[in-house]
Amino acid sequence: MVEIAPSILSADFTRLGAEIEAVERGGASVVHVDVMDGHFVPNITVGLPVVKHVAGATRLTVDTHLMISEPGRYAAQFAEAGAQMVSVHVEADAHLHRTLMSIKDKGAQAGIAINPATPLAALEEAVQFADFILLMSVNPGFGGQKFIPSSVDKLRRLRRLIEERGLRTRIEIDGGIDRTNISEIVGAGAEIIVAGSAVFGATDPAQAVRELREAAVQWV
Q1: Catalytic-labelled residue, pool 12, 34, 105, 204
Q2: Would residue 189 be called left, alpha or beta, if left means φ above 0 and alpha means ψ between -120 and 50 degrees?
Q3: What pLDDT, in 10s, does the model give residues 18-27?
Q4: Suppose 200 and one of 10, 47, 173, 206 were both cysteines; which one would form an S-S bond, judging by CB atoms 3.0 to 4.6 Å apart?
Q5: Selected catalytic residue, list 63, 131, 174, 178
Q6: Are the C-beta atoms of 210 and 26 separated by less than 8 Å?
Q7: Is 34 known to be catalytic?
């Protein structure tokens, strides 16, 4: 099943509760929270308190993407705060297995995020320990970027890698996805679609989610 995961990075934080309620009405099943530290990526966004409040305010699965240095120091804390999915970057964690296990020990799904220019070979040893892989189709750190076309081929290769190993690891993709390209992306193997400006930049976020879902199921 394809899931739409609106990213609150593009939401209006003065009315965040209402924004999340709108995408829930539209059929979203996941709410995506981008955590940036101003070090691993240039921007600084939200932290543990916001994740805790979001988790307490919605029935949607809270998916926290840690774009931070030393994610192993904090990953389990985000699971404790209520995130049911937590992903850390392969580029940022020298002890990836330990971090993934710490997330799982708190009852959350553990994910590995990978940047556009990082080869899939970086996942070779760790993919078996992850519940999902977050494939970045833009360079992390900013919302509203354009989709990198070569991500489709990378997505297909990742799907093949997972299937060849007989794993149940899901694929999430984030960056520049909208109604014009979601069907190709789903067809290439993505199962969880993160969308920020395509949802919260629309006049009616609930309708934007519905339209993304309709475009996605063309491949089903």
Answers
A1: 34
A2: left
A3: 999 999 999 9
A4: 10
A5: 174
A6: yes
A7: yes
